[in-house]
Amino acid sequence: MTLELPDLTPGQFNLVYNMFSFTIATMFAAFVYFVLAQKNLAPKYRVSMMVSALVVLIAGYHYFRIFGSWDAAYALEGGQYVFQDDQPFNDAYRYVDWLLTVPLLVVELVLVLGLPKGESGSLMARLGFAAALMIILGYPGEVSGDASLMGERGLWGFISTIPFVYILYVLFTELSSTIQRQSGRVAKLLSNARLLLLATWGFYPIAYMIPMFSAGYPTETPGAVVALQVGYTICDVLAKAGYGVLIYAIAKAKSEEEGFVVDEMVKPASAEA
Ligand code: RET
Predict the structure, then answer these.
(1) Which of 52, 54, 98 should be mutated for ligand 1, with most atoms under 8 A from CB?
(2) Ligand 1, from 135, 149, 200: best to mutate by most atoms within 8 Å of Cβ?
(3) What is the pLDDT, as a whole number, of residue 270?
(4) 133, 107 in Cβ contact below 8 A?
(5) For residues 95-121, b (16+ Cβ closer than 10 Å) or e, as one string?
(6) Cα 47 to middle of ligand 1, angstroms
(7) Domain containing 187: what range?
(8) Residue 47 has pLDDT above 80, yes or no
(9) How far does residue 135's CA lie from ligand 1's centre (Å)?
(10) What is the pLDDT, as a whole number, of residue 186?
(11) Is 135 a residue whose pLDDT tops 70?
(12) Does residue 138 have its Cβ closer than 6 Å to ligand 1?
């Protein structure tokens, strides 16, 4: 779905432009890091790092497309960035990205817990399904021309919050006993990952609400358009790359506790003889 946007000042246009560019670099750098860091983990935990790598790769691609769409949607005319009607900004990339990556993020967390097979399968299926539902239900509100709190944006936002609350409920009730079963160090890291998830995921619905309080959104509210894009972008960097680093720390701590030793030293030829 494409969006009609207002004209912007160079400062506003460039802020979003640079944030998108920074995010592409971060996602691809995180991809390389997650792929290379796998060798430091016990084989059992490598799959959660693979999922982290997939998430940032998918996001890097989508930010590349979002960046291209943003660039094409504006032209500098007389010192202002003027919106181009024939090349509207495509906001669907963001939701397609979330649809693919949000279920993967919950899978990542469940995988790193290292639960028995039966338990983890059901947890992943329930959380993954709720995550996908949350994104699908939020989309009609995001692209609706009616951005008011009591209108379409507010309604879809409210419906989408139901699966969101369900995810939080599962994470903070069912998962608590699992976390308590882990050693002190791992339990601390796991509850940090859960808190990071709450803090970053909780920010998306807040960003989603910005247009509800901006009369005339989007064509008459350049500030709200910029705030929404910058807000979602910061959340994505933290929720994907930042969260992946924490998942790595958990997987590393668990690997060490389970006796895994990284064999990094390449022995000189003479030592092998
Ligand atoms: C929407 C619509 C309004 C209500 C709620 C929402 C929640 C969105 C979330 C998105 C998380 C995205 C992540 C992406 C990173 O890969 C859809 C904005 C509750 C929680 C983690």
Answers:
(1) 98
(2) 135
(3) 66
(4) no
(5) bebbebbbbbbbbbbbbbbbbeeeebe
(6) 24
(7) 2-79+88-257
(8) yes
(9) 6
(10) 86
(11) yes
(12) yes
Q: Are 89 and 69 in contact (CB under 8 A)?
A: yes
Quick check: 2 pLDDT over 80?
Answer: no
In terms of C-beta density within 10 A (0-12 exposed, 13-18 middle, 19 or more buried), how is residue 169 classed? Answer: exposed
Query: Does the residue 264 lie in any domain?
Result: no
Atom of ligand 1 nearest to the CA of 141: 2
- pLDDT digit string, tens, across residues 198-235: 989 999 999 999 999 999 898 899 999 999 999 999 99
Q: Whose CA is nearest to atom 3 of ligand 1?
A: 157
The answer to whether the CB of 52 is under 6 A from ligand 1 is: no
Ligand 1 contact via 144 beta carbon (within 6 Å): no
Give the total number of structural domains in the chain.
Answer: 1
Can you give the CATH number for the domain in which 244 is found? Answer: 1.20.1070.10
In a domain, 145, yes or no: yes
Q: Is pLDDT of 261 > 90?
A: no
Tell me, yes or no, whether 243 lies in a domain: yes
For residue 80, CA distances in Å to 8, 14, 85, 198, 225 come to 6, 11, 15, 38, 16
What rounded mean pLDDT belongs to the chain?
A: 92
Q: Is residue 236 part of a domain?
A: yes
* Confidence grade of residue 271 (pLDDT, cut at 50, 70, 90): low
